Amino acid sequence: MTEAFDGAKVAIVADGHVVALLRDERPGLPWAGFWDLPGGGREGRESPLACMRRETAEETGLLVPRGRVRHRGRHVRQGRVTWFFGVDWPGMRTGDLRLGDEGRALVMMPVGVFVAHPRAIPHLARRLGAWRRYSAASEPPRGRA
Q1: How far apart are CA 83 and CA 56, in angstroms?
Q2: In whole angstroms, what is the distance from residue 53 CA to residue 47 CA?
């Protein structure tokens, strides 16, 4: 049985850009008008990976291949358990995205811009920045051996 959790988010990174969703500005909506990452709440007994993949398909039209997942982390924030995934998807372009029923805009934003954006959801910006720093530090040296 899968451990209880509330939802899952994903940073999909393609050639230095991350898929970013501009949230609606409805009264009472958490983080209304902020830049977000794809993902959302768990349905039924789905696993964290299944939740992330379903939410991403609903919000962006992308079907995330399991083999592209490079990072997964469990987080507890304000008593809620969520999962954060990191996906590398070289070659993906804005034209591959389709905005679903939620959000006002769906873009490929430079990772550094999202991480530093004053209207990016802060805890997601921190998680994306930490994952990218960790990924860069753990990559093998490039060039000839």
Answers
A1: 13
A2: 10
